[in-house]
Amino acid sequence: MNSLLISRPALKTVIDQVAEVTGYLWQKGWAERNGGNITVNITEFADAEMAALPAIAPVQQIGKVLPYLKGTYFYVKGTGKRMRDLARYPMQNGSIIRICPDLASYEIIADEPVMPTSELPSHLSLQNYLLETGSTYKATLHTHPIELVAMSHNRRFLKGDELTQVLWSMIPETLAFAPLGIGIVPYKIPGSIELADATLEQIKTHDVVLWEKHGTVAVGTDIMDAFDQTDVLCKAAQIYLSARSLGSEPEGMTAEAMHEIQEVFNLPKKRPC
Asked: Is residue 2 part of a domain?
C-alpha cells in the first residue's frame, strides 16, 4: 500500500473536504447505495516521490485519448463504494490514479487497489476539457438530486432551456449563482463514451448538466464548489415542486425581474425568454 496523506497535509485537506461533501450527499438522499461519483485533480500535489510510486493494480483503459491529461493525478471514488462509507474512510473507498503516457489509460498508485467509478470516462473527459480551456475548476461531481431527477421525467423540462427558465424564476439566488443554467443530456447508458461526449458538450455552456432520469454532473474549483452549484439548482427544483403541490403552476419571477438581476449582478447574458 502506498500511503500519501500522512506526509502531505495539503492533499489531506482536499481529501477531507471530499469526505465532508460525501456526507452531505448521503444526508440529502442524493447518494443511495453506491450512487454518485467524484473526481478531483490533485496534480498540484504531485512530486518526484509520487511520480516514482509503482502501480498497485493493472493498467486500465479510459476508452479515448485525452491529450491534456499528460502528467496528471486524480483522486476518484471507487466503483461500488458507498458515499456514506467514503465520508468516514475516503482512502478505503477511493483511490489516487496516475494518467499513463499514452493518455488513454491510467494506473492506481494509492492507497489501495480500489477500482475507480464506472463513470470515469465522463469525469476525465470533463477534466481534459477544463485543462484545455485553462479553467480553474478541478473537481467533478455526479450525484442524484431527487427533485431534479424527478423533473427530468417530464418531457416539458427536457426541451431546450425550459428547465433553466423555470429554475431561475423560483428564487433570485438561482439566477445569481447559476447564471448559465442547467444543460440536458437525453438518457444514455451510464458509463458510456456517448454519455461522456454529450456531457462535455453541455458543460461548455451550462453550470450543471442533468442526465435524463439519472442525475447531475457539476464542475467547480473544488468539490464543495461543485456541490454548491448542484445544491442551488436543486433548491429551486424543491421550491417549484412544493409550489406546484398547492394545486397550480407556480407563477415564478417575471422575465423583467430576471433581467434586472442579470444587470445588477453583471451576470453572463444567457437571457431569460
From this structure: no
